[in-house]
Write a structure and sequence with these properties.
binds iron/sulfur cluster; Rossmann fold; 43% helix; alpha/beta; single chain; Substrate Binding Domain Of Dnak, Chain:A, Domain 2; 12% strand; binds FE4-S3 cluster; 500 residues; 6-stranded parallel sheet
């Protein structure tokens, strides 16, 4: 069959190999071509040292992430912005298997880094150093003579630079919106007009909360926006009422016929169904043809007007609550208690179970894993993978909940801080702690985070539900040899092996 496109960047890629006709995510062959041209233009520009502003670089990389931008016109505008003939990504695909694997790993890691750096940039934080690395990495992808010796150090450096980006974003979010504190977030949708905000961009949420103040419109979070409730500067808006729905892959079902407006600030956007496409809006790097897009002026009037016109529910809907807000400061404020509990044997093991969720079968692993963790263990979680189990009641250990949501995927930084603090307290290395990371991956931010964990030397990570299609057997061998990275098997077998 004729190959119309080539994309293998996410976990749901067709046949576990590559999307070659149309994206499983809904991306068309033409959109994939434009995303390749945009990436190719960035590679040429980096190789030639041509001027590309940090903002354009980050937007262009972010726009090519899975489930972000399906809008050909927006991609064409970004290509014109870079304004340089593009490097043909076909050359990367034609390289030997290991070079192709490492260049892909590097490119996808850079996309993840760019997403996090973008959020820091819009809050006014300096990303110049991060962008310098991104340009160096892009230039290396365009170097035809580069192979394993040149690329492997860059892949590892990408993990380090991603930690820098996560640290910067942590600082930006904490300084802009306050230090996250644990909170219970209602899942009840109150009567009256409402807007549901999805994605990761806390600045967009804050701007919308300002513009909806006193207008009789309630605001709810969706997906990765749940941890926003933990920040005082966002929670202080009394019309930020609660949380709508679950993880991103359920949106086509959960959004149907809902009498409210939806705003996507970042991934993960799925092609909207006719039952609700008239009420979905995008902003920043997100785009989809035919949807209302809020531009750089951040005038959310069309979203607010849509919510008012739809009017919301006549009676309250849904029920229950999620708890979130266990960032590094919140967890480490209990450091004495945690250390005491480990010493007394009340806590035997910590698990970090989280990452990106997806629609493919096999992801019940994470639900079953958490359900089966023994009562003397603590489960830290983050990112949208948490929706597999964050409604489970798994109890407490003393005054501590056994399940603690640390936040969005970028709050992997919090998990790293907690691990380093515990290692410091016990005078050992992170790998000597009774701590195991059980990660789910889906898109490219998860790739960047995995590289960060490898850069920190963290071993024995369990990764699922499947291994990335872009990892060659030699690269996988390297990861297994040096980091004991292992695929998830069954919850029973993995728990037995970890706790054995
Ligand atoms: Fe396929 Fe994933 Fe690429 Fe979409 S992003 S085209 S699903 S590999
Ligand atoms: Fe989820 Fe898309 Fe990655 Fe931020 S919202 S974690 S998949």
């Amino acid at each position: 069959m004729e190959t119309k496109m080539f994309c293998m960047q996410c976990e749901q890629t067709a046949g576990g190999q590559a999307c070659t006709q149309a994206g499983v995510c809904g991306k068309s062959a033409n959109t994939a071509r434009l995303q390749d041209e945009l990436t190719g233009a960035l590679i040429t520009a980096a190789g030639k040292g041509a001027a590309v502003s940090d903002q354009l670089l980050l937007e262009a990389l972010f726009a090519t992430l899975t489930n972000v931008n399906f809008d050909d016109a927006a991609l064409e505008k970004l290509i014109a912005g870079v304004g340089i003939p593009f490097y043909d990504l076909g050359q990367v695909r034609a390289a030997d298997e290991d070079t192709r694997s490492l260049k892909t790993l590097l490119l996808l890691g850079c996309r993840g880094v760019a997403a996090y750096a973008y959020h820091a940039l819009v809050l006014g934080y300096a990303v110049a150093e991060i962008c310098l690395f991104l340009k160096k990495a892009l230039a290396a992808i365009g170097e035809d003579g580069y192979g394993l010796p040149e690329l492997l150090p860059l892949v590892m450096e990408c993990g380090k630079v991603n930690i820098d980006a996560l640290a910067l974003l942590d600082k930006a979010n904490n300084e802009s919106f306050g230090t996250p504190a644990p909170r219970s977030v209602s899942r009840v949708i109150q009567p009256g007009p409402f807007i549901v905000v999805s994605g990761h961009d806390l600045r967009d949420l804050k701007l919308l909360l300002e513009q909806t103040r006193g207008k009789g419109v309630s605001v709810y979070t969706h997906g990765e926006m749940l941890p926003a409730h933990a920040y005082h500067e966002l929670k202080k808006y009394t019309h930020l009422k609660g949380h709508f729905g679950t993880a991103w892959q359920n949106q086509q079902k959960e959004f149907a016929d809902v009498p409210g407006a939806f705003l996507f600030t970042t991934n993960c956007l799925m092609p909207p169904k006719p039952a609700y496409s008239d009420r979905v809006f995008t902003t920043a790097v997100v785009g989809y043809p035919g949807l209302g897009h809020i531009g750089e002026d951040k005038d959310f009037t069309p979203v607010i007007d849509k919510a008012l016109a739809l009017g919301g529910y006549a009676e309250a809907q849904g029920g229950g609550a999620f708890t979130t807000g266990f960032g590094h400061n919140a967890v480490l404020s209990h450091a004495e208690t945690i250390i005491g509990a480990v010493k007394s044997g009340a806590i035997k093991h910590f698990f970090l179970v989280g990452g990106c969720d997806g629609a493919r079968p096999g992801r019940n692993y994470y639900t079953d894993f958490v359900r089966q963790t023994p009562p003397d263990t603590v489960v830290l979680t983050l990112a949208c993978g948490k929706y597999r189990f964050n409604d489970l009641e798994i109890g407490e250990i003393g005054s501590l909940p056994r399940l603690m949501d640390m936040g969005q995927c970028n709050d992997a930084y919090s998990a790293v801080q907690v691990a380093l603090a515990l290692a410091g307290a016990f005078n050992c290395g992170v790998n000597d702690l009774p701590l195991t990371l059980v990660l789910s991956w889906y898109e490219q931010k998860a790739v960047a985070i995995l590289l960060s964990l490898l850069h920190l030397g963290i071993r024995n990570i369990r990764l699922g539900p499947t291994l990335p299609a872009f990892v060659s057997s030699n690269v996988l061998h390297y990861l297994v040899e040096n980091f004991s990275l292992a695929p998830t098997t069954t919850p029973e077998a993995d728990l037995a092996a970890i706790l054995g």
